[in-house]
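Suppose a colleague, Dr. K., hands you the sequence of a protein chain of 221 amino acids and asks what its three-dimensional shape might be. Before reaching for any lab equipment, you can write down a predicted structure in token form. Begin with the sequence itself:
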Amino acid sequence: MEDKAPIKRKKSNALVWAVLIGAAAGLFVTDRLRPPREAPPETPAAMTSPPPIPVHFPVRGEPTASVTIEEFSDFQCPYCARSVSTVKQILEAYPGRVRWVFRHFPVFESHPDAPALHLVSIAAGEQGRFWEMHDLLFENREQVTRDDILGYARRLNLDMKRFQEALGNRELIGRIETDYNEAVDRGVRATPTFFINGRKVEGAIPYSLFKQEVERALADR
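The predicted structure, expressed as tokens, is then:
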């Protein structure tokens, strides 16, 4: 059974991202985002070391936990959606010992509208509601019209003026580009891809296997 969406990556640049985000942000002037498309799986790549976690990265769980689950994810990837409940289970099973760091990796070749959804999550994060928007976007992957997105923002009691202004903020758009290019440098080839204390794990793996990886990371501390 497929558990990941494989991709071939080349680095992007600011001009490419400006065009992609500009087109994807048609979310706010068009009626409907296009549905996701997936490719068959590929074999995992080698382990790398985790970078320091910048302060603006979304973190769920204990910020000083000894185990870091760093996820490169795409809001339109069904395998990424499947993995959300698994990682939540891990956080519940290891309170205070594990933190979950989200990284933006929109697979725009097959999900051309994904960059806009990542920008939506960052805009919500500017008001302290990243994870709430994260959950809403994954729970409602097929409900992402303009009205849907604005409805999610209202449901989270966001300041709508600030929210919509953030959608045009170039610095916030740059965060997506930075994550994307770092993923390329680190050999990410599928979504979701996790780095558990630097050890690469690809795909929406079962809870039992995820737990083994976390136990391994704890034992290595």
